[in-house]
Amino acid sequence: MTEQKKTQPNPFLPNLPPQMQAMLQNPFLLNLFNPLHLSQPQSPHQSQTQNPSPNPSPNPSPNPSPNQARSQSPKPNPSQSSSQIQSPSSPPNPSASYSPLSNPSLKKLQESLSQAAISPFRQRVGAPLLPMALGTWLSLPAVWPSLSESWIKSDPDLSAAPKPSAANQAGLPPMNLPLSPSLIEMFNNWLAPVRDQLPADFSPEDAACLQQAVIDEALRRFGSFLSGVQAYQTHPFVRAEVPRPILWQEGTTRLIDYAPSSNGPIILVVPSLVNRFEILDIDPAHSFLGFLAAQGLRPLVVDWQAPGEEEKSYTLSDYMTKRLAPLLAYANTLGGPCHVLGYCMGGLMALALALLHPVQTKALTLMATPWDFGVAGVAGVPPADTELGSVFLKYAEAWAPSLEPLGYLPPDFLQAVFTGFQPLQVLQKFARFTAFSPETEEARRFVLTEDWLNDGVPLAWPVAMECLREWYGANLTARTAWRVAGTLIDPREIKVPTYVLVAGKDRIVPPASALPLASLIRGAHVHQPEIGHIGLMTGDAAPHMVWKPLVAWLLLQS
């Protein structure tokens, strides 16, 4: 009898059952979901803007930025093949009892993917969709043995550490997730509702039939997901870059004017450091910044861009004293004290800015701003004092020495973390995208949003560690112990009129995290629409539910 080849452990998911290990080692899947993909630092935007600054951004890259690549490729090149998705050079792992490529429809899909014309920028969509996300659709076949007492269990050694692998060659520590009794109990509780539905007289034959049915359904969903990825990657629509005046620039940070001819009240808009500001201007027909300008305000938005050599060493205090404070002072020269608005992480920075410079701040707006990281965590990552949260914190610290020499946290790495904790969202949205007609506004908005998500900004390493240790780990914000430039950031000391917008369906900054901040600011106007975090900017209901009420309040303060 021929000896069956033993499945080698996957260094990123070492404790999955052998069937899942084999499935995730399929060459096709490894090419599509490359866990070792860490993007290089992206060069600053080189869009055709009117830049009065005589000094170019430091260390310009000879390679085009993702936005350049998109602007240079208005449509996917039919002659171009994908380097991200390739046909496997060898058959699926023979140790697998089943394989995605054993399904005829998936074989056909694989062939079409390998020949598809894919926008160069959108090849990066594979990076954040790690096997953790893929494993969600395929998890039922993997856990099925634990659901039925009639099934012969494989009983893998959950404590065994994986052998050195490709992860070590990249200088990255293997991910050995220690499954403690309490974690195993938690997983068992998750599976209990399914296990309870199994009939008492469930035979091994019944189990085999049901297992195959579950496998078929998992593969059908997997195929739908891959079809959605393909539809996104090959969609012809790209964002049109509109030239806008750049009023101020220092290093890689710029201030962009969205209403240069307006004499209306100025509003300084502070986006997150980890995402580009374009979510605030996702589409000319659906632009938050454009809406503010149309209502008589003059939005000046901070464009952080990727950190240059100087910014790589920046702390949050550096960004405050060397970037935001000078920006606010400059905005004041155009019309006196101005409104300050912060979105997501930018809300915490806007809060600190208003507290440090109250005389220069007319009013403060905080949109989807996290505060208490100990209640509901952030972006699906459980609080640090939970068992899963402590495991995440442990491994984040373990990876730190390997990533620190880069000088920044790659956006793919951060997005992979969030995807790993909320994989169903990613898989479901691409599966739903297959039902969209490519010509519809819904499809175009989806493509624009995904392009924005996959065009994240690297985070300066000191800032990344502050966010991990001080915000997430120690929850210094909620403990009123967070300091910026030596000043304690206490919301109770805010003296300017404040508008706090809490998204009721927010999974990135849950209401339980944002509402405690509103309760600390005396006289704060709190608005809590039933909408999601990104939906604040991209949702069909956003203009009516979010933008109009905010503008009405802003004009009252002007």
Mean pLDDT: 74
How would you sum up the global shape? globular
What class, by secondary structure content?
A: alpha/beta
First-last Cα distance = 83 Å
User: What radius of gyration results from the CA coordinates?
Assistant: 25 Å
Number of helices: 21
| Percentage of β-strand residues | 5-15%
Helicity range: 40-55%
What can be said about this structure in brief?
By secondary structure, the protein is of the alpha/beta class. Helix content is 42%, strand content 9%.
Descriptors for this entry?
558 residues, Rossmann fold, eight-stranded mixed β-sheet, two-stranded antiparallel ribbon, 42% helix, globular, disordered N terminus
Could you explain how this protein is built, in words?
The chain is of the alpha/beta class and 558 residues long. It is built from 21 helices and 12 strands. The longest helix has 30 residues. The relative contact order is 0.12. The N terminus is likely disordered.
